[in-house]
Structure formats: C-alpha cells, structure tokens
Design goal:
The chain has 19 helices and 20 strands. With 559 residues, the chain is an alpha/beta fold. Strands 6, 8, 9, 10, 11, 12, 13, 14, 15, 16, 17, 18 and 19 form a 13-stranded mixed beta sheet that branches. Strands 1-2-3-4-5 form a 5-stranded antiparallel beta sheet. A two-stranded antiparallel ribbon has the order 7-20. Strand 15 and strand 16 form a beta hairpin. Helix 3 runs parallel beside helix 5, helix 5 packs across helix 6 and helix 10 runs parallel beside helix 11. It is globular. InterPro entries: Aldolase_TIM, GDGT/MA_synthase, Methyltransferase_Class_D, rSAM, rSAM_sf, Zn_ribbon_HMPTM.
Length: 559
Amino acid sequence: MPIVGMALIQISNQTTKNLGKKSTIRFTQSICPDCNMILDAEVFERDNKVFMSKVCPTHGECEELYFGSYELYKKFSTYWMDGKGAHAPNVMIDKCSCPNNCGLCSNHLSHSGLANMIVTNRCDLTCWYCFFYVKKGLEGAYMYEPDHTQIRGMMKTLRAERPIPGNSMQITGGEPMLREDIADVIKIMKEEGVDHIQMNTNGIRHAMDPEAAREVRLAGCNNLYLSFDGVTARTNPKNHWEIPYALDSCRKTGTTVVFVPTVIKSINDHELGGIIRYAQKNMDVVHAVNFQPVSLTGRMGKSEREKYRITVPDCIQRIEEQTNGEVTIDDWFPVPSCMPLTNVIEAFSSKPKYELSIHFACGAGTYIFEDEDTKKFVPLTKFCDIQGMLELFEDKAEEIRSGKNKYFTMLEVVRKLKGFVDSKKQPAGLDLAKMFGNILMKRSFDSVGSWHVKGLFLGMMHFQDKYNEDLERLQRCDIHYVTPDLRIVPFCAFNVIPEWYRDRIQKKYSITVEEWEEREGVKLEDGLYRGLMRRGAGDELAAGCAKSEMFHQAAQATM
C-alpha cells in the first residue's frame, strides 16, 4: 500500500497539448546543470523524439534529448506503476523536496532493488569517460576506503529497509579487486544476510590472478558485472586483451558474468550487435549483457552532447540493425513490466515481495535464446504472448485481493500458462510454462536460473545526468547507494549531484592520498595496470584506455 501523504512530483498535464512544432507530453521537475536549482521542466515530443526543456532564471534554457523514440516512449509508458515505497525511511520529511535531502526519504516510491557499495575509489585504469576514480595531484583528491566496521554498519542499514529488506548488493568502485581484503568485505556482507552479491569490475585482476578470482567466489561473490565496451581494441582499450582470461577464471570458479558496455554515440555504438555475438560465443559463463547509455558528466556544450548522447531507444534500434533483425524493437519491454508477476506472487503469499518499480524510461530488457540448428537468436516474444501473460497475472492478483480462493486462482493461472506459449517455436530444452508455474507455486524466483541454460538476458539502463535529470524518475529509482553515514541514496542523486552526495559524503570519511600512501607503504600509481597482456599490440593500443585514439578525440572535442 502506498504511504499516506506521499507527495508526487509531476504531472500537471497528462494530455497532449499542441505548441507549434512540439507537443507537450507531461510536466516534471529537473535541475539546472550549472547551479542545481530545482526547475519546472517540460517533457515534449518533436520529430518522433522526446525532449526535456527547462529554464533557469540565471543560466537560461537547457533543452536535451530525453528518449530517442516517441513510439517506444508511448509503449513503455503503459507500464507506469508506483512501488511500495520506503516504509522505514532514513530521512523523514513532511513535504517532498527532491533531490535536496535523499537518503531514503519518506517520499521515495521504490525499495532497493540493487544496492551499491563503493569499497574504494582507487582504480588500475584511467578511462577518459569515467566519472569517478581518485587522481593523484588534483586539488581536493582523497582516498576513500570504508573499513570493516563501516561496511557492516552499511549492511545493517540496508537489511533494516522495509517493507523489503535489501537483499542484492553490488560491490563497486573504483576497482574493488584492488582491495587486498576484498574477500573479507564479501564475507561481512554474507554474514549480514545478503543473498546475492555481484562485483562491478574491469576483470583485469581476475585475468591476471586466478587465485584471487577463486577467493572472492568462495567468499560469496555470485557474479561479475564486467565492463566490456566493444569487440575491438579500438572501442575497448581498457580490457580487450584481458577479457578472455577473465572469462576463463570465471569458468573455473563457477562465477557467472554480465557484460556491461558503456555506450557512447560515435565511439562504440556500431558494435552493440558484435558485443551480443561475443556473449553468445561465451554463453556457458556470460548470462547477460546490460548496455548503459553514457551519462554526460561535467560541463559540456550542446554540440558535444549531441555528438555523444545516445538513449535507450537509439541503442535498441542499433541492436535490431546489427543483429540483422534477429532482435527487434518489438522484443523489448520496460523494467516495470515484470511487476504483474510480482503482484500475483505477493497476493498469493500475503507478504510483500521484491519488485522492480522504476520509471519506465529508466531501462528495458528482453530474453533471447539460441536456436541449436541455425545458431540464430529466438527472442522470448517470438514464442510467448508476453502481454497476454502479464494481463493474466494482473487480473488474477486482483481476484485474490478481492477475496477469491487463492489456491484455486493460482491453479487456474498455472493451467492457462501453456496457452500463451507456442511450443512449436519454443527453443528445445526450454519449458517456459513449467518454469513460470514453478515460480508461482513456490513463490520464489529460484527457477529463473533455468532460463540461462540456453538464454541470454539483454538489458538497458540509462542513468541520468544534470542535463536530463527527471525528478519524477528519481523518486522511483531502485538502484541505490549505501553510505557510511547510514543513508541509502538513489543512484541518480548520488552521482548526478556529487557535490551534494557522493563527493561530500565520501570526503568526510576519507584521508588524503599522501596519508594513505604513508600508511600502506606504496604509491597510488603503483596500482595502475601496465598492460602486461598487451605485448605486441603497439605502443598506442598497449597503453590502454588512457592513451587510446578515442581518448584523444574525446579530449579535443570537449576542450
């Protein structure tokens, strides 16, 4: 049930209003990219694309591409749902003041679907587009590495979240594998009751040190959220040579992998299909690809933003083109489309269940399967009536809430499932109706693992920046950061306004780089990766991400 008195940002106009060449879709609030002032913002359609416009009284108008396809925006918007909210908020407020006081506040609409913990801001790479790693010599540079007591306190805060205790953790950085005690960090998380732990990493240490890969797996790390920006050295200079070795380490340790490409228009958006094909060749260990359209941080002129800006629909369109139509635009659904399944399980169990109630514009996904004979992809939508199945789940959830016998209702759901699946087109070895039946009757998602035997999840998650920040989206965010001051802060506040959140909080719990070097007896630069697997690649490419040709192009474009 929604929290009484919850204040919602948006929507003073749900209808389409013609204003010359553009049509208003809705109104929301955003921030000025220069001064962070909270501004009224208009989301509108023009030329079949969705834009956002806002006007700061000091810095003027800012117009930004919001969603690259109005048709896809309309389709995705039908899945707009409110979540359970934060029933045990860390920040109590009477009136919504988003994003001034995140952590979670009583107006937030989603529980933590995935919590992030930064365990270090050190990194062994220096990628030009990365928004966050410690750089020695910069004024105000600091070393942030929470100790074990702070880590345990953050985990207790996450587990105290209600109505759903946080149960999925991503260890991130910087590069987490630079911490020599990373296995101990993972053990603390497991001791505090978190079931699923994934590590956001470039995979270099997994490639160079298989024993370290084994240690973190034994400690409780389930999978790697592995940076992978392209299939060539030009598009992926950071770990092109190291990826095969990292995958081998994962095979030997039973660690699953999610490829995570940061997608930048004009840089690597021509290789999205190639990334999927590479994942297909390694489906024994790679179970998902989660594309992340780049967030544009720092001050950047409109022409530069237009050069690099890419949105969820743009990526989906390129994937259709680059897979020769095997994965089409119609195969994708927004993240909150899975909520009807959660709702029917929740109605049956009479207990709050994990849900993905983020804004429909935040992300999308689909499942694809490999045909054993042709080796072509068969998307889930090609043999399953997804829309019909979701409507069935929602209808039956409402019947249970209305008092109908829940056991008879669920049996009716299970009986009807086969009617939504075309068994002749279903990939060999997959019984989708049976899998959904197990999920429903066991009231858990353990059976989802069977999808991965011959399947690959394709995801898309577009984090916001100051140019396109939609506070309506922020209120629904379910990807959060836990912080040592015992708050839980939404991703698109924590990183979009670092001077309020990320940098301010972490600097408070940090030491200077010089103090860290003296304490540890090493230099920060000693941790940089020297490209030991790149011999013979040529000096420019062997130098990796910091000196790549793309880096020079981008640096010149943004001067």
